[in-house]
User: Fold these one by one.
Assistant:
Number 1:
Amino acid sequence: MVSQKEDKTSSVQQLIVNSRNQKTKKIVEKAMPALLFSAAIISILTTFGIVFTLIFETFEFFKRVSITDFLFGTKWLPFSGNEPLFGILPLIAGTLKVTLIAVVVAVPFGIASAIYLSEYASEKTRRTVKPILEVLAGVPTIVYGFFALTFVTPVLQEIVPGLKLFNALSPGIVVGIMILPMITSLSEDAMSSVPNSMREGALALGATKFEVAIKVVLPAALSGIVASVVLAISRAIGETMIVSLAGGSTPKFDLNVTDSIQTMTAYIVQVSTGDAGYGTTIYYSIYSVGFTLFIFTLVMNLLAHYISKRFREVY
Amino acid sequence: MVLDFKEEKTIVKRNQATTKPIADVAKNIVYDTRNLNLWYGDHHGLKDVNLSIYENEVTAIIGPSGCGKSTYLKTLNRMVELVPIVRTSGEILYRERNILDKNYTVEELRTRVGMVFQKPNPFPKSIYDNIAYGPRIHGIKNKKILDEIVEKSLRGAAIWDEVKDRLNQNAYGLSGGQQQRICIARCLAIEPDVILMDEPTSALDPISTLKVEELVQELKKDYSIVIVTHNMQQAARISDRTAFFLSGEVVEYDKTDVIFQTPADQRTEDYISGRFG
């Protein structure tokens, strides 16, 4: 018996030692980190390349237009013959109008739906609704754009007197609808990860379900919720197709939401699809606008990151 | 339900008046369980449970894992309803009203019956906000009264001296034993009538366990306590009465001395002498 056992062991050990696999394994083990590293470095280098191009071309732009005119000018008239004006404020105003309307639409509905899904809905409902939300998040934004232009705007024109065909209100609402699933889904994740023991602790003190949701779950998940809102804002700022289709192309520095506007992204589309020649000031202006946009979204993303770290309620 | 703070105090005073040693028969019954049956789906979790819990006593519930002791405890404040497939029959009279009656609002019951859990579960808030949480949801907003409640509750849970200088720090910065006493203080803050404890020391080290046990002895002057424990020595040390559960049935329920010295049922004797469980 004993010898048989030893035989078996030694033979398996023998097979392992003899196996060619060992050599290939060693090569793979050595090559793998290098391969994985190069994959990682390619995506990082690409990002740096994009940012570098952006900065480089933006410098070209500022050789032609003074930086104070750009930052503080209240007129954006790049196509006006001899005296083009490049004040970014009207474009920023357009972007912020749309973003603000989107946030006003999406945040209350998003958080309310998240509370419903995480605290009230049955397991079955949650399992059905969550994938639908993810599908909604995957709808191409050009579809939302048509929806804004051909459905929401006509409906709104019935309600809001003096609403132009192109305006800030309609794309604002639709961008809000677009970021709604993102806020709902991420906030729901944050709330669901609050441990049940916390809910039980509050319920055992005689709290109602709603009090538990508002006074225990919501504060405990606040960092995740705020981060989801900030990320959604960042998406709203960068949103292009909806505002290009339904927002118009008239940059104005005011607070009017019923009139035609132009956002930073819509301007870039307008110039890119037009016939601005290479090397002209207009050509470089899209990089300066792009760079401004980049700064906005970068700040938002950093803010989301900071908030989710700094304000995390540890449990 | 909004509680009047002053009214609460008088109730406690009345409770204190009854703590003088009195004849056993004269003790007030807090909970009277009659023919309680409970099912988790098809599983018959509690079978014909009949049990009376007395005022200002510590009642221990012991038994092997899965015997229904925690389920019974959670039925006393209807936390068991958080599991959607639970069904019950029979009656649990709390102060002479059937809590299983659908008309009995669960929030009202849980305001009168506090609970301490197995794993300390403070809220991720400051120590102060943890204690003030209960009074606040029941409508007490006055800062001075809240300050008083917080100090009184923390003193009541024997943790005031350890935390009085850091009331604004997060409760999660405390040790496990301290967190559990914070949870007890949180429960005391609404001055309940009964405190249910679900294996409150099973996640704690021996020294913290000792502190909680001493605290339980102290608290029974003002409160009626039901404690589930898997630790038989603990039941023997701190309880006045002990119920032994097995497979969802109450095998034996008597004064703790009787259960541990002269149990009537062979199965009780086997369990407490460590032959199974």
Number 2:
Amino acid sequence: MKEELFISGRNIPNIDPYLNIWHWEIPVYLYLGGISAGIMFFAGLFTILGKEKEMPTTVKWSPFLVPVALVLGLFALFLDLKHQLFFWRLYTTIRIESPMSWGAWTLMFVTPISMIWAAAYLKELIPGWKWKINILDQFETLVIKNRKLLAWAMMILAIILGVYTGILLSAFNARPLWNTSILGPLFLVSGLSTGLAAIIWMSKSHMERTVLTKIDIILIGVELFLIIHLFMGFLAGSAVKIEAAELFLGGPFTTTFWGIVVILGLIIPVILEILELRGHKVPIWIPSLLILFGGLVFRFIMVEAGQITRFLY
Amino acid sequence: MRYGMAIDTTKCVGCSDCVVACQTENNVPHGYCRDWIVENVAGSYPNVEIELRSERCNHCENSPCVRCCPTGASHIVEGGIIMVTHNECIGCGACIESCPYDARYSHPEGYVDKCTFCQHRLEKGQNTACVEVCPTKCLHFGDLDDPYSDVSIALKNRKWKVLAPEAGTKPQLFFLT
Amino acid sequence: MKTRRDFIKISAAGAGAAAIGLSAINWNGIGKAQASGSQHPVSEEEMTSFPTYCEVCFWKCAGWTYVDRNNNIRKIIGNKEDPHCSGRLCPRGTGGVGMYTDNDRLKTPLIRETVNGKQGFRKASWSEALDLVASKMKEVAEDYGPESFALFNHGAPGAHFKHLLHAYGSENEGEPAWAQCRGPREVGFSATFGSWIGSPEPTDIRDTDCLVLIGSHLGENMHNGQVQEVSTAIDRNATIITVDPRLSTIASKSKYWLPIKPATDMALLLSWIHVLIYEDIYDKKYVEKYAMGFEQLKDHVKNMTPEWAYGITTIQPDVIRKTAREMANASPAAIVHPGRHVVWYGDDSQRERAIAILNALLGSWGKRGGFYFKESITVPKYPHPEYPHAHWTWKDNLDGKYPLSAMGITTELLKASIPEFEYKHPIKAWLVAGTNLPLTIPDKELFQTAVQSVEFLAVVDTMPMDITSYADVILPECTYLERYDTIRSAPHREPNIALRMPAVEPKYETKPSWWIAKQLGERLGLGAYFDYDDYTEVLDWQLKKLGTSLEEMQKIGIKKFDRQSGPLYLADDEDYTFNTNSGKIELYSTEFEDHGFDPMPKFTQHPEPEEGFYRLIYGRAPMHTFSRTSNNPNLYDLMNENAVWVNPKVAELWDLKTGQMVWLQNQDGVISTFPIKVRITERIRWDSVYMVHGFGHANKKLTRTYGRGASDAKLITNIMTDPMMGGSGMRGNFVTFLTTDPGKEDNI
């Protein structure tokens, strides 16, 4: 029998017996960031493709969610900070090697752009809306003229943001579950998919939904592929990686992960979406809700389980 | 200059004096600690072996905590000591997540805290509090670049290992076996 | 999400709750958190240091108390000149700060009172409390004679109250240090070498080549200087041989670990003696010159072969031979350690005799690497009138029982307090200073009956220990960091003295023991015995007689003197007279014979556990001293409860899991008051369980440690009394596991 124990009474809050320094705030932050990235990506994409008219929800209406989601996400991040008085320190330096740093800076750019994007559609959303200040009017005209350019910027930043939500975790070598480069693409794809789910739920146009649903089916396919890859990678890895995988393969996260995230959050919605495309009547909110819920649970599980995985003790 | 510590697991009795000395020296709040002792028991009665290890921040040469810090609060000072500037730390927890040794914790006042190799004592030419107090003298500290330092001599004469070398952080704590 | 952590969180609820509280404060009070700045270390130049010697255990290491500019005690650091610690305090000494900062300390005098039929304590002024104690002492003296007033003490307060008691006319004092601890070894060694071992032990471990430990768990008992010397011995590649049914820490560092069947040590010791003699590897020159009774001994152990011992101890004969040869090779630099807490099976004085005999055969007494000749300074007595004659003492109650007891037997004082025992001279009232009897004295029933029988009980302590809940009056003593005390003068290689002085003013309304004793003395009309206003006058007078002064000692803390008694070791062929009847080392004890005891040790079979029961072995943890430190915030942080160690095979049988809470029930049906955590470990035999002594406090006023862990003392109800010196043998108790709550009907 092997025993390993602290004998000096070490029992530090949130560190022992298992690391639990990140609570609900970080997964919520990552989740909202992922949805925002998804919405912005497709708004940008369809603008560049010149489909504003055919895809109004994608391009015009759903982006109104983005600033709200990003501000809420940032607020969640702020709540996670334990030394909040010094929050501003994030913006006095740029640390290239710190995902947390460039995440903060990315959001610094993404949030205003998302606001500008939405603001430029405010007149279409609320007919008769008037900017009271002249400069804003002029600025709006400028934005509308250069929307395609802004769309490009937004699409690229959305990819960075989406990948970032994964890299924030994957950069930690100390947490074997997170330390895999698949996490970036996986979180990006998951973010795009949850973004799509939100747009689909909002969209009133059958045509728009059909296009988006087709994309979503592909995304979910990719996501499932990446998940399988993730576990293949773990199982082919070192002991700590195998231990990490075992949390999901018979360990305490097995049911939640495979039941809620994979089956309920990916497989069932993709089946429903296929059925819908084949003409079956499926209430549109059901697959969307399942995807959104699955995505949230996915981030909670990854953050929590990742902190349990370690090299020592 | 490169500070390092060698811990003699064959002499440590696990008394935890290093822990309480650190707590009083550095005013570590109750319920927290910057160093700790691990007991490892292997075998089956009566063929059993015990390893006792006094552990703390490894002041890694390749330090993920410094890299992941978004504000530069975690930084490296002379001798390779990794320090945290309290009023630059935002308490995001990234460095805590990044440490394979779980050596950092969130101080009740918000910032992240950990072993400093008693830098305030080293500056004055004193040894660290844990080394000074250890009743079995099983802690050896000093400059790894100096072949005659206590730690260099211990490493030269004895077999040693580091913890979790596969994490690749180049730790500066060496366990004499 | 039901995760692994959720489950663990429940068990770590305390710490978790604290964390939530802390983060909530931080969130609500941004900005406030930055105010204190107290978190930074303070350099030693910015602090003032005061000399002290530690009171956390009996080792009494000298150190410096560091006080910052805000008058906070920051740390205690060992005094480099002190041979007890060489500048390195043990965890308890370093954590001694917690004795001062503990919020649960006794703060004011308390008097028991009954309101509406409910008993409770009320705060009282010092004068009221002292008046009450003095009036009771007067009453007892008038009604029964002052001898009926007994003192139980431990540590530094003892000296002050012994002085009071002697002035008052009683010599009935007892400390658990004798009958519950080291008495047998003093008897055994005194019968052999004519000298006590004493404290600190004069074992020359730093220079030894072979150290043999019989159940002694150095390193877990942090007898500081000794542990430091063991470390030196390890560096010198000394052979360590540890005999212990448990893989103790030191056993894990030993060349030989002999996992002996408990209660059979005597057989092993005798077979070692056999090997040394019959393989002709004992120190012949030494034995010839200094010892008597060798032929009798040789004859006595003739049949006690390793093969004989194997059947009893389960230790392989070749291992017994090999280890005996190791000792002989190292001789005379070999130590068979006498141990410290040696009251095990009732034949302990005889077992210690066997250990002493082994040392004699190895020629280690008075030799480098064996036992050195200790020396101490006699501190002159501050002048006072002669003590009145005590008409009887605890010895007069014994009717010839325990003839070799040299110090008061606590359990006998307890029995004398109980009318049913019909002792000639009954005890009527107690003063208890610095010892927590309910957790120290085994046989709870005896203590309970005794404490209920006495008419009056006053307790002096710094903490609301369990004993205080029985008191009529509680007198709060200040901690050692806040007071002057007697000069420490303990035997060592170099004679030395150490000073304890206050680093800060006493907190709350606490007072030093010397002041309490003096106040009581004056109220009893014994002012002439306390002819000083402040204890510093006594200290200065004594120190000047010793060629120093209080002023000097306040600066240096410790002073060493030249030896007067001759060298540390015997020279080759030096003539030496031992303080025994024969003037020689007595392999055959004439003293024992005179009192009708076996002149040479014999093996006795001790009871074995029944099926489903396991021998209760207890011991110490390096971070705690008995039960007195478990509430110390610094030390509580290091270890906040004890666990019961269970062999994996036993755990499987009982379906126990590590971390599971169980209650223990002993052979007499006594159940632990609180549950205890299971630790499944290969470090313990399958016929025994192990737990650290000193937990399971039942006084709720000890807010941290209350109800944490279980008390071994409560489970020790079978006492095997040593007929020679009255020691309470405690290792003949057996426990079984109760996995469900046995109910609350049972009181402390």
Number 3:
Amino acid sequence: MAREGQPERARETTPLRHLHDDLGARFTPFAGYQMPLQFEGILTEHNAVRTHAGLFDVSHMSNLTLPPGDAEPLADAIGADATKLTPGDAKYTVALREDGTILDDLIVFRLPNRFHLIPNAGMNETIATHLTEHGCEVEDRTAGLCILALQGPQAPGLIEKVLNVEPPQRFTVDPLFDEAGFISGTGYTGEDGVEFVLPIEHAEETFQAFIEAGVTPCGLGARDTLRLEKGYCLAGNEFNPPVTPIEAKLTWTLDLDHDFTGRDEILTRREAGPQRVLTGIKLTDEGIPRREATVHHDDEPVGTVSSGTMSPTLETGIALAYVDPAIEEPGTRVTVDIRGSHRAGTITEVPFV
Amino acid sequence: MLGGFNVGHETPKKLAYTKEHEWVNVEDGKARIGITDFAQDQLTDVVYVELPTEDETLSQGDAFAVLESVKSVSDVYAPVDGTVVQVNHELEDSPELINDDPYGDGWIVVLDMHDASQAEDLLDHEEYVDHTEA
């Protein structure tokens, strides 16, 4: 038996590694970090989040802060109009290159005393440079902060019970622990839930408190199957090689009535129409579509899979793929090349679940 | 394989092994084949299998089955030359048997061996444990 692909080396790990070791985690390198891949098992963890609650350590994600006076240069640098955000707001958006392609996706939080951005793992320096070039005064706080995600239908009740705070509404943010950290109504699983940004000591206590309350610890394996069932983009997959928000169907994350880097290009390209678009594919045959598999329609290649997995909920193969817009109508029959065998599927609107 | 040590995994003494983490049980010129407890644990939850067909002829080293976990795809190689005489079709509906009972209900195929002497070149229990701890 042999596994495909070479293991990559990882420089960093999460400050909570000792807690994960105690829980029997298996680690995987991801974007330069050793992070938990799984604890008990990906399927168990996936189902815990869909039916109860799961807790993720995603401290590999980046943390950048900006003074509240930087709303205008920040608005120039990202797709969201930061000048319209008021304290308590959280917004998912993208930062674009001059050519209109996505540099990264991120969430911007407007806290009482600052803007806080969470770009992807390993993107702190790239985004800090991008923001600095737009005139922002950026502090990189990635190394000193942890990010936890509590996700699942039982999450709101657990937050009240364990922390004695009211869970925030979707895409709002509240300070926590005397403003040492914050709690936001955000997540990457499509379930109810929150994310916490906390100094390391608070993160250790909070992680342990939820585990003691019976929450299932979850790794990046389940995080990936959960996000894929909802059709959410993963930067390293869906934005690599570079794509525009039009192709990735993320124009809804842009405030096009304000000026920002890449905006003119988006308006031009929107007029011209994309040459490929991101869509869901659900297999009707057996098999698991994997990244870089070719998609065919009427025996012609029409696209490429950017992410694929076995959906634990549907128990069928699902994929996100960039395809020719001519065949993106839901219900269109396609095949996916899995090790030389063409497996039948249909174009399916996301979320799959 | 990704890193990991063969600690807390079962490795029965009576079986033969390969460096690629297959186990082989040779009886009367027939070789029953599966993957080891160590291998199934490294692979994580198996969710899909592709199996050979009966009567297929295999040479030592041929990839004859595919095991897919949520995250990865792994080939299973023929430890010896032989003709496939039995296939564990239970795995098609219950791939988790590979994880739950790797040396029992999680067996993959039985080969009718072409050259019984090839069994002597396989690793014994001790050599396999050393290999996984290296």
